[in-house]
Amino acid sequence: MPHLILSDASLAYGHVPLLDHADFQLDPGERVALIGRNGTGKSSLLRALAGQGAIDDGTVWRQSGLRMGYVSQEPLFDPELTVFEAVVAGMGEVSALLAEYHAVAHAMAEDLADHETLLERLHHLQGELEARQAWSFETQAERVIQRFTLDPDARVGTLSGGQKKRLALAQALAISPEMLLLDEPTNHLDIGAIEWLEEMLISSGVAMVFITHDRRFLDRVATRIVELDRGRLLSCPGSFSGYQARKEQILHDEAIQNAKFDKFLAQEEVWIRKGVEARRTRNEGRVLRLEQLRRDRAARRERQGKVELALDSGDRSGKLVAELEGVCKSFGENHVVRDFSCRLLRGDKIGLIGPNGAGKTTLLRLILGELAPDTGSVRLGTKIQVAYFDQFRTQLDEEAALVDVISPGSDYVEIGNEKKHVIGYLGDFLFAPQRARSPVKSLSGGERNRLLLARLFARPANVLVLDEPTNDLDIETLELLEQLLQDYSGTLFLVSHDRAFLDNVVTQTIAAEGDGFWHEYAGGYQDWADYQARRRAEETLPAAAKRAEADTSAQVQVSRLKADGSRKLSYKEMRELAELPERIATLELEQKMVSQRMQDPTLYQAGPQEAQQISLRLNEIDEELMSLLERWAVLEG
């Protein structure tokens, strides 16, 4: 049975139909990627499928009793709730019980004055939750909160935009949904979290509809591509790569069909205007057909044009852009950059990758001389003109008109040596003339990004700093931006979690290695990922060989002692045997404490470095315990 059916749906904003008698069906196990140009109505369609918005005509049918998770592009939460309360808020009747149980348990840990009352309430809540079999819900909530590195006790009002997006994903996943509707789920997630989300969605078997412009995510997750184009839904089973080939053929066929139609219409228009001769031979059926042809041509919606991108790199900077020697930067106890050195030259295209909070923005500010290092030196080149693209769009005044954002106080912008009227320049970025004086607050997320790019490219710059420029941009604009940056003669610093974009643009990568250490690599994201995989393999092989050698040695010792059971232990061996139980007990106690620490959600809030170190220590304890137990067996015979 289908999870969801959309039938003959129509939806319009103003005179433009976003949905024009569209049909759609989602079956169990399907993972459908909904793609399309910015402003075509993808988010509006997803809201309608989720029951959060209405359509003008047609029907939306959802399977009764279906557990559904929905993540909007800009999620909204009560700022007074804690993260845990917000996550369990979507769990129906058990949400209040779980939230109260979490609060009482937290109060008991902090306040012993009313311990008896709190304990009694805790027991009552425990019974209520057991009766509803709700413990799996709590476990799932804690797991997703931990995986998205959120503090369960933090107030929602204190979270950043990116943290709120992670919170919305955690809330949707915590109910173990049977159907997911996700609007730009990868925005604001770092690469590690994106890859975890990919694996989780693929292995879960959950049916879903998701909007994304992350091509690597599309290719890995989607089993079917559905494009919303001029009010119609075009479905293509298979991967995004397969869809691209099919779409090219569809557009080619459409262009040929439209050309034939237009030629025939032109011939009929010539016939109707032939004057006296035409009126003598005119038949009513042909006139009616012409009127229908005119109506069909008027109703045809042409495909929206492409963004016209142009970038003025300004005056050439000096050959050296920046040189760093032994640079260190800390904020309190947090070491953001340790002993980092690099030499960056004009024309370099540098990608910065690392988990959220690793310090990519801080490192950029050090490189550009905007922040002084604690130790080490930074030498800047000459004639540097820097332009910034801000992922949080703080440069945009919500009330300002689009023309004032691009060219305040002037009707023209100058690109290179060419002057262009601001209305025409906005048209290059697909903003219609009638929208030129609309306020920024009327724009969608993708349109805001296009506006920021338009503003950025309206000023000459030989150093570009792009912080998450790909968020919310449609795929076609992304590919055009890639081409522009490949041809850009200046120096580029790119912070992005879009792996395909990084691979297609950057020539070198600066990656966070943990605990404030950064390292420079040649190539893009995949080159860095391949290097990391080889390094892990090289580290694993010697350790495995060493363990195998130790096991073989222990087995030989046991065999020798069994063959010579009469051999007495030396004094040194007797002392070693006497000390072994205490050494083993100490290690087992440390093993227990480290294991408990691994299960603590707060461990992951400080970043992956501490968790990685603790995991390594746990492996070391396991190996040492095994060695001591084998030695004990040898000495006792």
Describe what you observe in this structure:
Helix 9 packs antiparallel against helix 11 (284-299). The protein is built from 20 helices and 20 strands. It is of the alpha/beta class. It has helices spanning 42-50, 83-88, 94-110, 115-131, 135-147, 161-174, 191-204, 215-221, 240-272, 276-281, 284-299, 360-367, 402-406, 422-428, 445-457, 475-487, 499-505, 525-563, 571-598, 608-636; strands spanning 4-13, 16-26, 31-35, 57-62, 68-71, 179-183, 207-211, 224-229, 232-237, 320-331, 334-345, 349-353, 375-380, 386-389, 412-415, 418-421, 463-467, 491-495, 508-514, 517-522. The chain has 4 domains: 1-66 and 178-261, 3-Layer(aba) Sandwich (Rossmann fold), CATH 3.40.50; 79-175, no CATH class; 320-523, Rossmann fold; 535-636, Helix Hairpins, CATH 1.10.287. The model has no long low-confidence stretch (mean pLDDT 80). The relative contact order is 0.08. The strands form 5 sheets. A 6-stranded mixed sheet has the order 5-6-7-3-8-9, with helices on both faces. A 6-stranded mixed sheet has the order 14-17-18-12-19-20, sandwiched between helices.
